[in-house]
Amino acid sequence: MTSSGNAVPVFLYHSVSDDPPPWIAPFTVSPRVFAEQLDRIADAGLTVVPLRRLVAALRGGPVLPPRSAVLTFDDGFADFYWTVTPLLTDRDLPATLYVTTGAVHPPGGTARGSLLPPAPMLNWRQIATLDACGIEIGGHTRTHPQLDTLPGRKLCDEVFGCKRDLEELLSHPVESFAHPHGYSNASVRRKVQKAGWSSATSVGYAFSSPADNALRISRLMVRADTPAEQFQAWTEGWGAPVAPYPERLRTRGWRAYRRVSAGLGRPVGGPPTD
């Protein structure tokens, strides 16, 4: 697939570790590979901009610099503090970290109330420190559910409650949201907007663009098995579709199946989609 000159790669990472728990290993890159990918981004002449600059452009504000890119990280793994941040700081690169608040480790204890399996996660002190150091902290719900399968009350608790959790900790507005698994629909996006989030990222396996949906920003997920050639293609602006594009029929079918399964008390997972 080829892309246009308006393609904006919004890279999605999860854990950056040499020894991740098995459940997140397929979505983990090693510190060595991550550093190499940051170097590839620089060598390709991309300008890494804060997510808020892309959001401003999507909402009719100043245009992005030519060949812009954005770095995002989901869930809130502890390696972001110890491994990712030093690599970003050395290169003076901005990033957005989306936190699942129910997975945050409280002082002297372990996190409870998250659907994510056990893993080393950030604690509240570390999140506050990252915020003070200039990392944008965003929300990723409280428990990491499939939002498009939830009834209204539970959906509100996840979307509104996550925002409240983070703003109480950081003492300032938190504006960026990420849909768990990349799943959303029009109803979910209306709730996200009503809660006061100014943007929301999805997955899509596609480039974003100045015409993308600010409440469903497409991202390119970087996985353990992402070939170097594929990542290089993304930095050069090709190898993926460009958002926006119509929702795929298979996405609608998969959503319907997940909703029925959840209603029967047998929720299903699956790969993040658009």
From TrEMBL:
Pfam families: Polysacc_deac_1 (PF01522)
Designated name of the protein: Polysaccharide deacetylase family protein
Subcellular location(s) of the protein: Secreted
Organism: Streptacidiphilus cavernicola
Enzyme class at the top of the EC tree: hydrolase
Chief localisation class: secreted
EC nos: 3.-.-.-
Domain NodB homology span(s) in chain numbering: 67-274
Gene3D superfamilies (UniProt xref): Glycoside hydrolase/deacetylase
GO MF assignments: hydrolase activity
Keyword entries, A-Z: Hydrolase, Signal
InterPro entries linked: Glyco_hydro/deAcase_b/a-brl, NODB_dom, Polysacch_Deacetylase
Cited SUPFAM superfamilies: Glycoside hydrolase/deacetylase
